[in-house]
Write a structure and sequence with these properties.
The chain is mainly α and about 190 residues long. It has 2 domains: about 55 residues, no CATH class; about 110 residues, no CATH class. Helix content is about 60%, strand content about 0%.
Length: about 190
């Protein structure tokens, strides 16, 4: 019995170029599988067009397909931004990193600012990261200067502010770090830490 794997003379056929109907099917399939933004859907369709080509004479209607998906409710930038921001916060990422992720997904600046975490959420995210990664008082061994700087740098790369990273890494105990994250003196309007 001869199978496809044993037939070296058979080459896979190149995929057929896309037409409007197949482009719409790809978009529907994508939004059915993934929560996405309009920007990410447009990027996906453009990538598929580069891979497979376009069959029509006119330009591919990527913007029109994305607009139809959005008007049908299959793509919602605000719901996507809120979901992505809260997921990144739970994983311990800071405001700057969240804004970068949303920007890469094609979310506009105004919506990014509306979904930005407030100070309490940012502090809880910083505490979650320090706890999860064993930074500062959550570590098993005392910190020397080099490890302290590496931990602060890791928190900065995760999008946290320098003052928050220093506060957590230099906390005297786990209780002090948790107290800092729960403190509300920043809400009084003085902004001091």
């Amino acid at each position: 019995m001869v199978t496809k794997a044993h037939r070296p003379d058979r080459r896979p056929r190149p995929p057929r170029p896309l037409d409007a109907a197949r482009l719409e099917e790809l978009a529907l399939s994508y939004v059915a599988r993934f929560a996405t933004s309009e920007g990410k859907l447009a990027d996906y369709l453009k990538r598929k067009l580069r891979e497979r080509g376009w069959e029509g004479e006119e330009a591919p209607p990527v913007a029109a397909v994305v607009a139809r998906m959005a008007s049908a409710g299959y793509v919602d930038n605000e719901a996507f931004a809120r979901s992505r921001a809260s997921g990144l916060l739970r994983r311990g990422y800071g405001e700057r990193r969240i804004a970068q992720a949303l920007g890469a997904a094609g979310i506009d600046a105004e919506l990014r600012s509306r979904t930005a975490p407030d100070e309490a959420e940012a502090r809880r995210a910083a505490l979650a990261m320090a706890s999860r990664r064993g930074f500062g008082p959550f570590g098993l061994t005392p910190l020397d200067r080099a490890r302290r700087e590496k931990q602060i740098a890791a928190m900065l790369r995760a999008g946290h502010r320098l003052d928050s990273a220093r506060e957590l890494v230099n906390a005297a105990s786990v209780a002090a770090a948790e107290e800092w994250a729960a403190a509300e003196d920043w809400a009084a309007g003085d902004g001091s830490e």
